Amino acid sequence: MLDAGGQYCHLIARKVRELGVYAEVQPSDTPASRLAGRKAVIISGGPSSVYEPGSPTVDPEIFRSGAGVLGICYGHQLMVHLLGGVVERGEKGEYGVATLEVHAPGELFAGTEPRQQIWMSHRDLVTAPPPSFAVLAGTSTCAIAAMGDAERRLYGVQFHPEVIHSPRGKDLLANFLFRICRCTQDWDPSHQIPQLEEEIRAAAGDRKVFFFVSGGVDSTVAYLLCLRALGPARVRGVYVDTGLMREGETEAVEQMFASLGAGTVTVEHARDRFLGALAGVVEPERKRQIIGAEFLRVQEHAAERWHLLDGHWVLGQGTIYPDTIESGGTKQSATIKTHHNRVEGVRRLIEEGRLVEPLHSFYKDEVREIGKLLGIPPDWLDRHPFPGPGLAIRCLCSEADFPFSRLQEGWVMPVHSVGVQGDSRSYAPVLALDRPPDAEAKAAATDLINRLRGFNRVVALAASHAPLAAMRVRASVMCETRLERLRRADAAVRRISRAGGFDARIWQFPVVLIPAGTDDRPDSVVLRPVDSVDGMTAESVLMPEPLLRTVAEALLALPGIAAVFFDLTNKPPATIEWE
Length: 579
Ligand code: XMP
Hints:
Layout: E1 2-3, H1 7-18, E2 26-27, E3 40-43, E4 68-72, H2 74-83, E5 86-88, E6 94-102, E7 115-122, E8 125-128, E9 134-138, E10 146-149, E11 154-157, H3 169-180, H4 193-204, E12 208-213, H5 217-230, E13 235-241, H6 249-259, E14 265-269, H7 271-278, H8 284-305, E15 313-316, H9 321-324, H10 331-342, H11 344-351, E16 355-356, H12 364-373, H13 378-381, E17 402-403, E18 405-406, E19 411-421, E20 424-433, H14 439-451, E21 457-464, E22 472-473, H15 480-499, E23 511-514, E24 516-517, E25 523-527, E26 530-532, E27 538-540, H16 545-556, E28 561-567
Parallel strand pairs: 1-2, 3-4, 4-11, 12-13, 12-15, 13-14, 15-16, 20-21, 25-28
Antiparallel strand pairs: 5-8, 6-7, 6-9, 9-10, 10-11, 17-22, 18-19, 19-20, 21-28, 22-24, 23-25, 26-27
Bound molecules: xanthosine-5'-monophosphate.
C-alpha cells in the first residue's frame, strides 16, 4: 500500500489482510527498488490534487516492475498523470453513492454485476486515459471511473472499493489480488502466535518485561503474549486506578487478569491523588494536562518501587500497526504514547532499545483474533474504546451560572464543548432542540449546524423532569458527587444498551454529564452513541425508540438528573467526546 494521504490507506490495507494477503503501508514515494518482490502495489486515495506543487507522487518505475498496480481515487489520477493521460480540475466534485456501469468487466470486475453501487469522493476527474489503457466502467458524471491495461496489469478506479458503500468493492480487491496479481491467500494472524512468542523471547533475552496495562484490548493482548512467551516469573503488569474509571472497572480488570491466570498485575490506587489535583478545575485542556502529569508521577513511582528501570527489565507496550506509522497515528495512540514516553526513566528505556512491542505489525481486528485464541473472553475483546483520561473528559464543568436563551430554532445551552473543523479545535455552546431525537431531528441538526454560526453541536431532548425554559447552566466543578452521578448514569446506560443489543451496533457510546438543570436536579445526561472506523470521523447513531425510552426512564430515576439529551452531531464538526 503506497500512502498518498492518510486514513483511507489503512482501511485498504486492512481489507487486503482480511482477504488473507499480508499488506504493509509505505510512503507513496518509496523507491521501486525497495518494493522488489512485491506481487501487488496499491496506490491509495488522498486529499490532494495531482497539479498541486508538492502533492504525493510515486516512483514511475513501479509501473515497469512487473507487480500489478491498482490506483484508487487520487492513486487512479496519479497513474493517469504519470502515464500520459489527462486529469482535469473538477469545479464541484462528486461525493456519495453512485451507480457504476461496467462496459468491460475483464479480470477486475469478474463475477460482479454490470450495474453496481459505488462510493465516490473526488473533485478532480480523469478525462483521457493513458495510451494503452481501456476504459472499463463509468458513471453518469464520471466517464472514466475504472480503467486498465491488462497486459501490464495496471488498473485504476476513481471510486472507493474499500468502503462498505461500495458493496462489491471487496470482490474487486480480491480480483486484483488473486486473478490479476496471483497472490496467495496465506495471511492468518492467529498463526503468528508461536512466532510472536519467539520474537518476544529474542527481544527480552534474559530480562523481564513490565507493562502499564489499561484493560484495553491492545495492552491486554500484548501482555498475555509476553506472559505466554516468558512465564509469570518474568512479566509484571501495573494498572493505575485514577478514580476516573467507570463503575466496577478496576475490579473487572483485576478479575479478567486473574481469570486468565495472569496473577502478576498490580493495581496502583491513585484516586485521591488524581481527584485532589483536579478539584475545582473547569477548563478541559487544563484537566488533560493535570491528568497527564499525574499519570507520569504514578508510573514513575511504580517503576521505582518495583525497580523496573534497572538493567533486568524491558518495557512492553501494546502499540499496534497504525500507531507505528506516522500518517496513521490516531489520537488515542498518540495520547497513550505520550503518557508512557514522557516518563523520564521509560523514555530512557525506549532510547536504549529496551522495548518489546509484539503487536507492532497488526491491526486492531487482528489483535482481537489473537486475543480470542489467548482465551480473552469475547465480550472483553469487543469492548468499546475508553479514553485514558476517563470520566474526567465526560464530566463537564462551568465557571458560573448562565441562563438558557431562546432562538427560533431551539435553545442555546451555554455549556461549552469541544469540536473539530479541519485541523482546528472549536469550543462552543450547544444548540438544544425541544423535540425527540428521531430521523427528522437528525436531518434538522445537520442543516442547522451548517446554517447557524457559533455552534459545534446540536442535541435533542429525549426526556426531562422540567421544561427547557426552567433550566439553566450552573457553576460546577469536578467533584466526587458529580463523578459518582456520572458513573451511575454510565453504568445504567451500558447495562441497557448491552442487553438491548445496541452496543454491538455502534463503535462507542460516551455518556456525558453536563451542568444543566434545576435547583434540586442540577445536572443532565447526554447520550452520544457513534459509529466510526477509527475515531477520526464519526456518525451519530439514533437509538430505537423503545430502548431510548428505557434508558431515559432509568436516568431520570437517578438523583440529581434533570434531563436526558441526545447528541445528533457527526464528527466533524463535533468531536466524539465533549470534554
Ligand atoms: P474525539 O473526542 O477527539 O475522540 O473525537 C476520538 C477518539 O479518541 C478517544 N480519546 C482518547 N483516548 N486518550 C485515549 O486513550 C485520550 O486522551 C483520548 N481522548 C479522546 C475518544 O474516546 C474517541 O474514541
